[in-house]
C-alpha cells in the first residue's frame, strides 16, 4: 500500500523533470535552427579545432577535389525504407587541409557503383558542420582495418584517411542537397537541412 501511495508522487516528479528537459530541448533546437538559417561560411585553410563546437550546424561552403581512394563506407543506414550506406569521402581543399565529407546515402546495391567516383575535378560542396555522433549500446566497434565503419568517429576517420602528417583534419561536414535527382543517378544523397535531435520529452511527460 505504501508503495502504491508513493507512485503518483514519483511519476509526478518524473513528469516535471521531463517538462524541464522538454523546455531545454526546445530551446536548443531553436538555437540550432537559427544557426542553420545563417549564411554559409567558408572554412579557413587550417581549421582551429577548438572552435568547432561553436559552429556545429552552421552551413559551410567548401572547394576541393574528392580523394575517392580513401572513401569510407558507413553501414548500415536506412533511408525511406531502403537499406544502404553513407559515403564519406575526404575532400582535399586547395591550399588547405583535407577534411571529411559525408556525401550522403546510396542504396546497398549502388554502394560500389562507379557513379560514386564520377566527380573528378574541383567541386564546390555545400554542407553542414557536425561532430562525432554518439553511439548507443548496440553500435559495434568500428574496424577500420577491415573497412567496417558503424558510427562517425571523426578522429579515427581522419587518422585512417592519413592523419595530421598528411594535412588531414578531424573535421566532419554533411553535404546538403536536392535529393531525388541524385538518387536516380546513383549519386549519394545528403541529409535535409534540419536539426533532428530526437525530442521525445513531451511523450515522456504524458507517459509519466
Ligand atoms: C583556437 O581558438 C582558441 C579559442 O578561440 C584560441 O584560444 C586559440 O589560440 C586558437 N588557436 C590557434 C592556433 O589559433
Ligand atoms: C594555391 O597556391 C598556389 C601556389 O602556392 C597559388 O598559385 C593558388 O592561387 C592558390 N590558390 C588559392 C585558391 O589560394
Ligand atoms: C542504383 O542506381 C541506378 C542508376 O545507376 C538507378 O537506376 C537505381 O534506381 C539505383 N537503385 C536504387 C535502389 O536506388
UniProtKB/TrEMBL annotation:
GO annotation, biological process: mitochondrial respiratory chain complex IV assembly
KW Transcription regulation (keyword) present: no
Family from the record: Belongs to the SURF1 family.
Keyword field: Membrane, Mitochondrion, Mitochondrion inner membrane, Transmembrane, Transmembrane helix
Keyword Mitochondrion found: yes
GO cellular component: mitochondrial inner membrane
Membrane topology summary: Multi-pass membrane protein
CDD domains documented for this protein: SURF1 (cd06662)
Cell compartments where the protein resides: Membrane; Mitochondrion inner membrane
UniProt superkingdom: Eukaryota
Protein purpose: Probably involved in the biogenesis of the COX complex.
InterPro entries named among the record's database cross-references: Surf1/Shy1 (IPR002994), Surf1/Surf4 (IPR045214)
Name of the protein: SURF1-like protein
Organism of this sequence: Laccaria bicolor (strain S238N-H82 / ATCC MYA-4686) (Bicoloured deceiver)
